[in-house]
Amino acid sequence: MAPIVLFDGYSKFQDGNYYANCSCVLIKGPPNVVIDTMTAWDGERILEALQKHSLTCDDINYVVCTHGHSDHIGCNYLFKKAIHIVGHAVSFRDKYFSDHNFANGEEYIISDNIKVISTPGHTLQDVSVIVQSNMGITAITGDLFEKI
């Protein structure tokens, strides 16, 4: 159940333009979790990456976006059967769950080995995913470190 990096993120200034995209991470369970779904132009890449791991979008139980920037939420639309956690918001379809309070330090428990916690970041509602596996404890932190 160790995290699998499907795509490395990047942030760079080149030819007078700024380019950025987030890392996209898979936790193959159950439960199956995708963390940060890149830009809206990356859908085919994500589909192909999941297929290499014998998964489809319908197999994903949770989508966690470490914050709401466009390079982290762009392909959420692919995962129609999953619970979505975007920053501090937890939703399924048009239902937003109000019984969870990240702001008070409350952890969102996905499974015995996967939890989502509020963490400092470059928005006011960043979250990180903590995974415990046979490789130890891993934190998926989104844009914890960013360069311009």
TrEMBL record:
User: Where does the source fall among the domains of life?
Assistant: Eukaryota
Where found in the cell? Answer: Cytoplasm, Cytosol
Q: Which InterPro entries match?
A: MBLAC1, Metallo-B-lactamas, RibonucZ/Hydroxyglut_hydro
- Catalytic function, reaction form: a ribonucleotidyl-ribonucleotide-RNA + H2O = a 3'-end ribonucleotide-RNA + a 5'-end 5'-phospho-ribonucleoside-RNA + H(+)
Record-linked Pfam families: Lactamase_B
Ranges of residues in domain Metallo-beta-lactamase? 21-148
Q: How does the annotation summarize its subunit structure?
A: Homodimer.
Describe the function of this protein: Endoribonuclease that catalyzes the hydrolysis of histone-coding pre-mRNA 3'-end. Involved in histone pre-mRNA processing during the S-phase of the cell cycle, which is required for entering/progressing through S-phase. Cleaves histone pre-mRNA at a major and a minor cleavage site after the 5'-ACCCA-3' and the 5'-ACCCACA-3' sequence, respectively, and located downstream of the stem-loop. May require the presence of the HDE element located at the histone pre-RNA 3'-end to avoid non-specific cleavage.
Tell me the protein's name: Metallo-beta-lactamase domain-containing protein 1
Q: What is the lineage of its organism?
A: Eukaryota, Metazoa, Ecdysozoa, Arthropoda, Hexapoda
